[in-house]
Design a protein that fits this description.
Keywords: Signal
Pfam family, one: CVNH
Number of helices: 1
Bound molecules: 2-acetamido-2-deoxy-beta-D-glucopyranose
Organism: Cephalotrichum gorgonifer
CATH superfamily: Cyanovirin-N
Number of domains: 1
Largest sheet: 4 strands, antiparallel
Protein name: Cyanovirin-N domain-containing protein
CATH topology: HIV-inactivating Protein, Cyanovirin-n
Structural class: mainly beta
Helix content: under 10%
Oligomer: single chain
InterPro entries: Cyanovirin-N, Cyanovirin-N_sf
Strand content: 35-45%
Length: 150
């Protein structure tokens, strides 16, 4: 699915999607794996590396085994690759090293994730649309955030 940049950048287009409240899970069923935004709140991306060697991490508050919301995180390098300047899902994709200023662009019910990345020649690629719907392949198993790529 592609959007025109003008659509994405239209004023007010970034209304935060209404996140579902944390589901109270009976003890023992918390290990059922679900798409993380079904269970977790306050998704954020942060760089736990530095400007030269970024390490982009997804964090969110998720219901722990005792149903208390706790901060959980997953390194997105486990799940996302840089394909010549464009992000795509990929196990151990290690996109971070070639991407900077990653951010969410929440739009309607989708948390789009995108970064400024360089292509094979080292040139920064301008994207017309964000490519990663972060909920598509990030799950929560009651304990950890994880990539649910096969
Ligand atoms: C719920 O399950 C967790 C993980 O197995 C366990 O540590 C915890 O003691 C359980 N809580 C209750 C109230 O049984
Ligand atoms: C990403 O990094 C891990 C750990 O260093 C490595 O095992 C893996 O092969 C790398 N993946 C790619 C696509 O380079």
């Amino acid at each position: 699915m592609k959007f025109l940049a003008s659509t994405l950048l239209a004023a007010g287009a970034y209304a935060s999607p209404p996140l579902q409240p944390a589901r109270v899970l009976a003890n023992g069923t918390a290990s059922a794996q679900r798409k993380f935004l079904d269970l977790c709140r306050n998704p954020s991306v942060l760089n736990t590396g530095d400007l030269k060697a970024p390490n982009w991490v997804l964090g969110a508050d998720c219901p722990d085994y005792d149903d208390v919301m706790r901060f959980k995180a997953v390194e997105l390098d486990r799940c996302i690759a840089n394909d010549n300047g464009y992000l795509e899902w990929g196990i151990e994709g290690n996109f971070s090293a070639k991407c900077k200023t990653c951010a969410f662009q929440p739009r309607l019910l989708v948390w789009w994730f995108d970064c400024v990345c360089t292509d094979k020649t080292g040139r920064e690629v301008t994207h017309t649309a964000p490519s990663i719907d972060i909920n598509e392949h990030i799950s929560y198993n009651g304990k950890n955030l994880l990539c649910d790529l096969e």
